[in-house]
UniProtKB/TrEMBL annotation:
This is Acyl carrier protein. The modification O-(pantetheine 4'-phosphoryl)serine is found at S39. It holds the Pfam family PP-binding. Belongs to the acyl carrier protein (ACP) family. The keyword NAD does not apply. Residues 1-79 form the Carrier domain. 4'-phosphopantetheine is transferred from CoA to a specific serine of apo-ACP by AcpS. This modification is essential for activity because fatty acids are bound in thioester linkage to the sulfhydryl of the prosthetic group. The lineage of its organism: Bacteria, Pseudomonadati, Pseudomonadota, Gammaproteobacteria, Alteromonadales.
Length: 83
């Protein structure tokens, strides 16, 4: 998956599953402050991302993710490590 494909898939998940308005999504958007996700949403997001990538995601890999770009970076690393 390319970075753009990851970003598009993440946007689709956030809009469809978490009802985040698409116009609020940007690479700099903070998951908790700007997009109003909570810790339970974060766990649900990790589950969705695992389904997307087919890879097991360790929770500690996403603890430091605060922005959309952080999530993309972590997923990009996960996908490239597995390749």
């Amino acid at each position: 998956m390319t970075r753009d494909e990851i970003y598009q898939a993440l946007k689709d998940i956030l809009v469809k599953e978490f009802e985040v308005p698409e116009e609020e999504l940007s690479l700099e958007a903070n998951l908790y402050q700007d997009l109003d996700l909570d810790s339970i949403d974060a766990v649900d997001l990790v589950v969705k991302l695992q389904q997307l990538t087919g890879k097991k995601i360790q929770p500690n890999e996403f603890k430091s993710a605060r922005t959309v770009a952080d999530v993309i970076d972590a997923l990009e690393q996960l996908v490239s490590d597995a390749a």
